[in-house]
Amino acid sequence: MRTRKVRNHDTIAASAVAAAHQQHVSLPGEALTATVIAELAREVMALNDQIKKTDRLIESRFDQHGLAEVITSLPGFGHLLGAEFLAVTGGDMSSFATPDRLAALAGSAPAPWDSGRIRGNLHRPRRYHRGLNRVFYMSANFAENPSIGSRRSNPRGWARGVQGRAKSRQASSADPDSADHGGC
Fold it and tell me: In which band, very low, low, confident or very high, does the pLDDT at 47 lie, cut at 50, 70 and 90?
């Protein structure tokens, strides 16, 4: 509750714990349900550990590739998206003669829909590689939005930045003639 900025979180938590200790009602299937839930929780935790191990294996394998440093230097690309990009493209960029060919395979380049004398009529392509499209859209999302890792590494700076934007918005809404419009 503290991370969610709940007011009086200590007293609320204490009263909830006290109320839980005062309850003495038990249901017929309570013990069985508790056992099933505990087993499911253990399985989920084991799966999370397995996912972390697999992610570390993918990262170590990706770092061995010759283009890994170049790919991770691109905005929004990390080890996992870079590995997915290499898996989709086969790891060989020479198979794409131009960047336009790569964009066409990803579905990012518009396809012509010309007919007769009508020219320059472009639309979204119907046939493209969904995996490569996902890689590019995810990298654009990550590049546009601040990462969770930066929030963890610099929480005070992150909070200061959020407060700074909020203050500039308040100032611009209070004074309509102000030159600063909160980054808009």
Answer: very high
- N- to C-terminal Cα distance for the chain? 33
Distance (Å, whole) CA 91 – CA 39: 41
Beta strands in 59-147 (DSSP E): 111-112, 122-123
Output DSSP code: residue 109: S
Q: CA-CA distance, 122 to 109, in Å (whole number)?
A: 9
- How far apart CA 148 and CA 158 sit, in angstroms, is 10
Residue with tokens 């969610």: 4
pTM for the full model?
A: 0.55
Cα 62 to its chain centre, rounded Å, is 20
**Separation between Cα atoms, residue 96 and residue 88, nearest integer Å:** 13
Q: Determine the pLDDT at residue 111.
A: 73
Query: Domains of the chain: which residue ranges?
Result: 38-146
